[in-house]
Specification:
The chain is α+β, with helices and mostly antiparallel strands. 18% of the residues lie in helices and 39% in strands. It folds into two domains: 12-59 and 84-114 and 194-288, no CATH class; 134-188. The chain is built from three helices and 13 strands, in the order ββββαβββααββββββ.
Length: 293
């Protein structure tokens, strides 16, 4: 197995049955209720949430000149990596299908806001017919960055004039900051972090306690369960020993009791999430005598 690339402490959540989305006991079969005929079955559906963060480093167009003209090192190769940052297992609804949760987010952790692929565009010098080389453009850009910093200092110390104050000074400083960050980004590139939560459905079977819900890799992120390029994300269900009421063979009222089972989501040997949930598929059916009316 590949090395585990995320750091995620094991979360132990042992939930009480009262906090679950279903009752531990459910009447089953065909019976009359409130004047209507009811056909009821007892089954459990589990939902597995996996939150994956995508870290993307986009190289700036003048990255190779950052050390020379700014004295700082910049990333020289685009890079994308994925990590699991959160996981959850809970009781789900009876509606089928796997869905992507809407709680997705994108954070551009760069020197200027915008998309991961777009950088500030610098207008060419229309007063000159000489075409600049990339290094000449980088050198000129570095000079502009230092000029902006000097002008900012002049505004702050008051050397730029007495007519710049109040809201005008605040706006000028903000605009200088924006220009400087946009110019720096051309050297230092962008760091974009995208977080996506995917919800996967698991239908327990009384004869099966292990389920491959998906696969994961640092290079590809969350992958389908049949994609062998990733490592397995395994849901392990361990029913507990429980005692149930005695069943009466003369009874005509049937109930299904759920069994509390420990549900653990594993990535390799790493436990991402553990909880105890009531699961009907591992429980017991009890028949009792209906109380006399």
């Amino acid at each position: 197995m590949k090395r585990i690339v995320f750091v995620l402490s094991t979360v132990l959540v042992f939930t009480a049955a009262a906090a679950s989305a279903q009752s531990n006991i459910k009447r089953i079969g065909v019976y009359a209720e409130n004047g209507e005929i009811v056909l009821s079955e007892a089954s459990t559906s589990l939902e597995v949430d996996i939150t994956v963060r995508k870290e993307q480093v986009v190289v700036g167009p003048y990255a190779r000149y950052a050390q020379k003209y700014l004295g700082v090192r910049a990333p020289l190769v685009d890079k994308t990596s994925y990590s699991i940052v959160a996981a959850d297992v809970r009781l789900g609804s009876e509606e089928p299908a796997a869905v992507k949760a809407p709680s997705d987010g994108v954070e551009v952790m760069s020197h200027a806001a915008g998309s991961a692929d777009e950088f500030a565009r610098l207008l060419p010098n229309r007063m000159s017919s000489i075409e600049q080389t990339p290094e000449a453009a980088a050198k000129k850009l570095a000079t502009d960055i230092f000029s902006l910093r000097n002008y900012r200092l002049s505004l702050i110390t008051g050397d730029a004039g007495e007519n710049v104050f109040g809201a005008g000074l605040e706006y000028a400083l903000k605009r200088i900051d924006e220009l400087e960050q946009a110019y720096l980004e051309l050297f230092l590139g962008k760091h974009v972090s995208t977080t996506v939560t995917t919800t996967l459905r698991v239908k327990p079977n009384a004869d099966k306690t292990s389920y491959i819900v998906a696969r994961f890799s640092e290079a590809g992120g969350l992958l389908p369960a049949d994609d062998l390029s990733g490592d397995i994300l395994l849901l392990q269900i361990t029913p507990t020993e429980m005692s149930y009421p005695a069943s009466d063979p003369r009874g005509r009222v049937t109930y299904r009791y759920a069994n509390d089972a420990q549900c653990t989501l594993l990535y390799g040997q790493q436990s991402l999430f553990t909880t105890v949930l009531p699961i009907f598929e591992f429980g017991r059916t009890i028949t009792v005598v209906a109380p006399a009316k």
